[in-house]
Amino acid sequence: MELRVTDLTCARGGLPLIEGLSFALGRGEALVLRGPNGSGKTTLLRTLAGLQPALAGEISCPPEQMAYAAHADGLKSTLTVRENLAFWAAIHGLREVGPALEAMNLQDLADRQAQHLSAGQKRRLGLARLMVTGRWLWVLDEPTVSLDAASVALFAGVVRAHLATGGAALLATHIDLGLPEARLLDLSPYKAAIPADLGFGGFDGDNGGAFL
Amino acid sequence: MIALLIRDLRLAFRAGGGFGLGLGFFLILAVLVPLGVGPDPATLGLIAPGILWVGALLACLLSLDRIFALDHEDGSLDLLATSPIPLEGVVAIKALAHWITTGLPLALAAPVLAILLNLATPGFGVLIVSLVLGTPALSMIGAFGAALTVGLKRGGLLMSLLVLPLYMPTLVFGAQAVTRAAQGLDAVTPLLLLAGITAGSVALLPFAAAFALRINLR
User: Which positions in chain A touch B75 (Cβ < 8 Å)?
Assistant: First the structure.
């Protein structure tokens, strides 16, 4: 099983952002997405995760096999760290949260409410959620935001362990993760040309995407 | 799915979760009406079924926008949409959690407030039954309205405008059942219609709401 993306076009707010993107990602591999702000990294990841439809192209891997992590961690401030994690584990049919807590160095915070965590600690909890999904393909949008250097190294170790057990990771990030084995994919060459008739088309059917 | 129900209930009961909000509103409304209308027992008894049902309806409305808005803000909704639970199931469970924390307490508290409003004694049983049968529809229709407006800033007002007209049949049959029972008449027909509306909402609206959520998450 691998992720194979063929000739993908994805749009944000009805405007095509990325065009003709193709890549493959097999088990045990990591792929880092690069590109300036607004180049469509988040849009691509949301499309892969099944949160929005692709305008064209094919994605070989169903969203059910991907664990998606975005800018927001999906934490409830009045639940404790353990309760937050146990909830996501239960949603994915798993029970054990201890190893995930330990891997992200959260075991000392396990009984604290999430509202009392620092931004970096919340992020670590958000990333620990990936480990309780039991899914092989991690789709991560800027996973290292607000992490300190030690936590970034910790996270790189977690990703490496995930790859070693047959997982794969697709990461959008601006910083160096310390994963030398990861391949790089620059999105800038795939930037979609903005249609010239923008704002006028749509009614004649050839630019219907703008009205989706 | 059980995990989601437990989480939502736990969140509702923790600080700031909003449990008791609807109940408190219902209580205050039932206390305010005799102050406004006057203490005449006959008048109060006459309007009691309508006041209690309108109060329950507005109390339900009060906490509706929390159903999805909070999960949308903290990113949980995106993550739930990518989880193994179908979004239809998420909608149904969240509506159920809303009913347990709002509709059910209202139904149980209503007889106490009915005394304040001087409802005729034969109406008490039917009042509870009608609220238990009718409030699930309020939660389910409300979840649909909340799903439609989830991404909007200050969508709560728009949601009220969308949801309140859809509440009309439930209000009509609910209040009618209590009125008839209070007058000593047979209330089975409006209760059956009430149950029918609830059954229809629970069967159909999770799909409509999940569809609306998918569009709003794009």
Answer: 70-74
Task: Please check the confidence at residue A204 and state whether its pLDDT lies above 70.
Answer: no
Measured between CB atoms, does B80 come within 8 Å of chain A? Answer: yes
pLDDT, position A39: 85
| Strands A137-141 and A30-34, sheet pairing | unpaired
**Cα–Cα distance measured from residue B39 to residue B34, given in angstroms and rounded to the nearest whole number:** 6
Q: Where in chain B are the domains?
A: 2-10+19-217
Q: Is the confidence at residue A206, as pLDDT, over 50?
A: no
Residue A195 is predicted with a pLDDT of 62
Question: Which pair of tokens denotes residue B212?
Answer: 């609306």
For residue A48, the chain B residue with the least C-alpha distance is B82
Half-sphere exposure of A68 (CA within 13 A, CB side): 28
Cβ–Cβ gap B83/A92 under 8 Å = yes
Rounded mean pLDDT of chain B?
92
Note the pLDDT of residue A197.
53
Tokens at A181, concatenated? 């084995």
Residues, chain B, total?
Answer: 218
Residues whose CB falls within 8 Å of the CB of residue A149, separated by 6 or more in sequence, listed in order = none
Structural domains in chain A plus CATH codes: 28-52+62-186 (3.40.50.300)
Contact B14/A at CB under 8 A: yes
- In this complex, how many residue pairs, one in chain A and one in chain B, have their CB atoms less than 8 Å apart? 68
pLDDT of the residue at B98: 94
- Whether the pLDDT of residue B167 is over 50: the answer is yes
Residues of B in Cβ contact (< 8 Å) with A210: none
Output the CA angle B48-B52-B56, nearest 5 degrees. Answer: 175
By mean pLDDT, which of A199-208, B16-25, B144-153, B207-216 is the weakest? A199-208
